[in-house]
Structure formats: structure tokens, C-alpha cells
Task: structure prediction
Amino acid sequence: MTEELKYLSGFGSEFSSEDPRCPNSLPAKQNNPQQCPYGLYAEQLSGTAFTAPRLENRRTWFYRIRPSVGHYPFKTYQKGNIRHDWNTKHPDPNQMRWDPFDLPTSPTDFVEGINTICGAGDPKNKHGLAIYNYCCNSNMKNMAFYNADGDFLIVPQLGELKLKTEYGRLTIKPNEICVIQQGMRFSVDIIEPSRGYILEVFGQHFTLPDLGPIGANGLANPRDFLTPTAYYEDLDEDYEIIAKYQGNLFSCIQDHSPFDVVAWYGNYVPFKYDLNNFMVINSVSFDHCDPSIFTVLTCQSEKKGTAIADFVIFPPRWSVQENTFRPPYYHRNCMSEFMGLIYGEYEAKKRSFSSWRRHFT
Ligand SMILES: [Fe+2]
Result:
């Protein structure tokens, strides 16, 4: 029987969680006592500069069995196909589309199965984004991955993913998404051969869009974002830690599981979201709203109101405008668009859009 996982509900909240096997494992009153309960090690993970304004400041305190710093040196990791070499390629202004990517025929785990599709900017300057697909058919056994460059927004298209993180476990299935932010260690197990999309943003984190005149509710509601609850494993076994750092992959060995966090608290967390919970807002008179009305999450640049990337969905909805030319929207847009199908048929072009498309409009 599949264990039902527990989650904490909310977006941007201050959460706290203890593995129920170790009650009172969160230290009371202070972050870093000389002696933590159960002899745990206190460790802070920062998601913003220490001095970031309070509203943007993100950090979490872990209470773990062994310190993360205990590992052998990192070396170049040879596998995988994560590349940030778009600045060395000649650009192509044409619209492009792809058929669904083939599932691997030889054993391939989630990290090995990540392929770079496109990108812009530079992780070294902490500005820009990358878009990948993943196709995998095996588990990350005794292996963990973390991204020092930015945040991963993972969108499964085929197959449920079972993620282990330092914060606990979470599962995501097609039509759910999850965000694993910079520095958070995680591993991915699968149930069947799996495929999906990843959006990576450098330098900033995803937030919920402002709602303006829509009001206090609507689009993706904060309560529907779910964060895992603490779950530790105490394993003295070799683990391979793979790091994405300045666009390159590195790996090191450590002699214990990195998923040994017994308790944690903070506001820098991984989260998942079921796209079925998105409250769609649409025109009820004439004309289409701009597609930004379908924004689930946004990653804002330092230019006010302008995103590094918006994650937008076209979910099932009534589209009942009068005296309005049918969808799709015809526009020319200063922003690049990358589209991927999760399920169903895309309303604009049904043919040859079975799973993948990128277009520039
Ligand atoms: Fe468009």
C-alpha cells in the first residue's frame, strides 16, 4: 500500500516540522544551541542574502544527524546533458517545434536524463533561465542532486515522480508541478518511465503574481501550495552528491545519506502545486484577456513588472466571449515563449502538437 504523505499548506509561510519519531527535536528559543536535542547539528540554508529586505528574506534551519560539509572533494561529473552554451551558438529566429522526446532504452536516472532545450542569460551573473526536458527510466539510488545556480520548476508530463528532499518526501504526478529551490538537495525515484519539462531561473525565486483589481483571491491560491514534512533516514552508506554549479555538473561522495534532517523550520522550502486548483479568470463580454491572466508563478526581474520567466498554463475553461475572433491570441510579443503539452489538445494547433512545441510570437 502506498503511504499517504503529509504536507504543510501555504505559500511563503514560516513553517516548522519535526519527524514524529523524534518529538521536540526543534530547539526551543534559539537557532543554534551548543547542544541540540538528540545531538543533532544545526545548519542554516539561505535562499537570499542575509541582509535581503524582510519581505524577500528566505532561510531555513535544519537539524540533522551529520553536517553537510562532511564529504570528499567535488570532481567533474561526466554524465548528463546540462549545457549552458547558448551564447556560443548562432541564434535562430524561426518558430520551432518538437515531437515528444523518446524515452531512454538504457538505464537513465533523472539527472542523466535532463537535456537542455534552450536558455538565455548566465547563471554566473545570476540572471536568466534555462529550459530542459527530462526522460528517465531508473531511480537515483544513493544519489542526490542540488542546483547552486537557481531554482527548478519541474513539470511532469508522463509518470509520477517520488522526490526525497532534505525537508521530507513529496510526490508529483502529471498536472502537478513542484519547485526545488537553489541549494536544496533532492533525489527522484520513478514508478514507470517518465518524461517532463524543467524551467530553471537564475538569481531570483518564484513568487505568486500580484492580483491587482482581481482582489485578494484567485489564480493560484496560496493555501494550495504544499510543502513536505520532516522525514529522516539514518544511513551510513556512500552517497553521490551531484551539484550544478555555474552551469557545470560536479559530483562528490559522502559516507552518509544527505536526507538526515530530523527537524526544520523556516520560509525557504520546496513546494508542489496541483494545477487543477488554478482558478481561471477570463473575459465574460468581448475580447480575450492577455495570456498573463493565466500566470501560476512568476520570477520577477529587477525591472518592475517584468519577469525573467512567467509560468503560465492554459487549463480547461469556458471561453464564451461575444463578437471576438476565436483563440488563439495572435500577437507579437517581446518575450520568448516556450510551450509544452501536459495532456489534451492545444486549442490553437491540434496537429503535430502532441507533446512539445516552442514558438516565438
Ligand atoms: Fe503567445
Notes: Residues 9 and 226 are 5 Å apart (CA to CA). DSSP finds no helices and 24 strands in the chain. The radius of gyration is 21 Å.
